[in-house]
Amino acid sequence: MVAGYAQPGPAASQPLSNPALRYSTIPAYHTVCSWECFDRWAWTFISRGHAPGMFGQHYILGGVRLHPGTAGRAVAMAEDHRRGQMLEQARHLIEAEDHEAAAGIYQTLGMWKEAGEIRRNGRRQIVTQVHVNVNDLVDQVRKAGIITDYMCPACRGHIRITGETTLATLRNCQYCGSAVQTTDLVDFLTKVVGYS
Fold it and tell me: Cβ neighbours of residue 102 under 8 Å, at least 6 residues apart?
């Protein structure tokens, strides 16, 4: 038999004849037939959102004080359940294309590699959409005969954009070599083309 959960019974609440024993009496722990039996009992509470909580020096689950041997098992079960729910929520956020929120969940769980991959995937999709817009905007600048300077945010160098400018020259700053953010470039070119 495995020591299970403690429940104060009528025997524990009855006054004792010896006053010295009154304060040292702890309710007897109930026994469960097996770990599987305890797991089923604990899962009925954990699956409904009730996690074991500390009350003094003991864990409580569903109003029942847990034996130290079973408390660790119940806490691990609740933590696994919470982690599974958070991972499921992250999967739903990825389906909804909320990559930053999903990456935040992975980061909270200590899954740094997965958080970085999710963020990169989110950026990769945006860059693919923006790449077409940059091509169109550079073509509009070329057709309109506009000559303008884009200021590099890193070194404040002026990157000249003319009719001969190619996308390859716009990927990196020609002065400091830092990568030019495509979204910033699109915003800049949109303003230039819009005002011309």
Answer: 90, 91, 93, 94, 118
pLDDT in tens, 135-183: 787 788 888 888 888 888 888 888 888 878 887 888 888 888 888 888 8
- Work out the angle at residue 62's Cα, subtended by the Cα atoms of residues 60 and 67, and round it to the nearest 5 degrees: 40
Total-model pTM: 0.51
Task: Calculate helix-pair angle for 99-108, 68-95, nearest 10 degrees.
Answer: 160
Region label for 96, one of left (φ > 0), alpha (ψ between -120 and 50) or beta (otherwise)? alpha
- Cα separation, 69 vs 28, whole angstroms: 14
Beta bridge partners of 58: 55
E-only strand ranges, the chain = 2-6, 29-32, 53-55, 58-61, 64-66, 148-151, 158-161
Show me where the domains of the chain are located: 2-92, 129-195
Q: How many CA atoms lie within 13 A of 130 on its CB side?
A: 19
Instruction: State the Cα–Cα distance between residues 55 and 38, nearest whole angstrom.
Output: 20
- Rounded CA-CA distance 82/188 in Å is 45
